[in-house]
Design a protein that fits this description.
single chain; 305 residues; disordered N terminus
């Protein structure tokens, strides 16, 4: 009798624990997104149907932002984690890896968008994660996110997600057409880009631009240029007749201005929203607003006398 009593007591302790373990996947809720650009895409197709947590603050650098212990725990409890991948989110890569290892559904968006490699400087041969400068790839990203939300997020209104996805894809198609028309006003010989780091590879491929070089000769802002790097880029700018240097508006532009002075020509330094959205009302509160603002500034910079 004592043996039976002990068995029952043990089962009373073990069964709740086993139930909790088997219910872990069912307890996962909401969507966690690493970057604010992907966060905007996700919210545009999900709406209020399910909570969407975006880890990267407005105006932050996707290469270097870090998260709190609370945010790390949110990743591990998520119904779906959407991240850029291809090495972009250097500060949270280990957290995403840990989530994958514990069975959290994840989507590495850039890896599924026919990625291109960097073609020069320190990052040459490595995959380029900056796909969002090409609206056609953004369109595909939206389709991927939508499909995974419907597949992995419990209790989602699939009809509503599909409806919002269709409407948002139409907006991206309109954006792509408008951008193409705007860039057609730039003569072919002026479609040359110098940026603060290598972020416009997909853009150049999509719209027929040439990337002359970057102030930071790398695909990440965590690198730094040498004196010879700046000297070589100055020579390339003079040779190519580039009229503008485009920098990320959220990053210091001191090096770009030093470079402009070294070139000794009338070279503008123009800020773009390249890797992060802003707070609403500050110029790039959404992906669509960011793309339009950048298009207008690139056209202005490269068509100026």
């Amino acid at each position: 009798m004592r043996t039976i009593t002990r068995v029952i007591a043990c089962l009373a302790v073990l069964l709740p624990a086993l139930s909790a373990c088997s219910g872990d996947s069912g307890d996962r809720q909401g969507i966690v997104v690493t970057t604010n650009i992907l966060g905007d895409l996700t919210r545009s197709i999900v709406g209020d149907a399910v909570p969407v947590t975006v880890l990267m603050p407005a105006g932050a650098d996707p290469h270097s932002f870090a998260i709190s212990a609370r945010q790390a725990a949110e990743i591990e409890r998520a119904g779906l984690v959407v991240h850029n991948g291809l090495g972009l989110e250097e500060g949270v890569a280990r957290n995403v890896t840990a989530a994958v290892e514990t069975g959290v559904p994840t989507l590495s968006v850039a890896e599924k968008l026919d990625p291109i490699d960097y073609s020069s400087d320190e990052s040459k041969g490595k995959p380029d994660p900056h796909f969002w400068t090409d609206p056609k790839r953004v369109r595909k990203a939206v389709e991927l996110i939508s499909a995974r939300v419907i597949e992995d997020v419990d209790g989602i209104d699939t009809a509503a997600v599909r409806q919002r996805t269709t409407a948002y894809l139409a907006e991206i198609d309109q954006l792509d057409q408008w951008m193409t028309q705007q860039f057609a006003t730039i003569p072919a010989e002026k479609r040359k880009l110098v940026t603060n780091h290598h972020v416009f590879g997909y853009f150049a491929q999509r719209f027929g631009f040439t990337v002359v070089g970057a102030v930071i000769p790398s695909g990440t802002t965590l690198a730094s240029p040498s004196a010879s790097d700046l000297s070589n880029l100055a020579d390339a700018i003079r040779t190519a007749g580039v009229g503008a240097i485009f920098v990320d508006s959220s990053q210091p532009d001191r090096l770009a201005r030093v470079l402009a002075e070294r070139v000794g020509l009338n070279v503008q330094v123009i800020g773009l929203y390249t890797e992060s959205l802003t707070e609403p009302g500050q110029g790039a509160g959404s992906y669509l607003e960011m793309a339009r603002a950048n298009t207008e500034d690139i056209v202005r910079g490269l068509t100026a006398p």
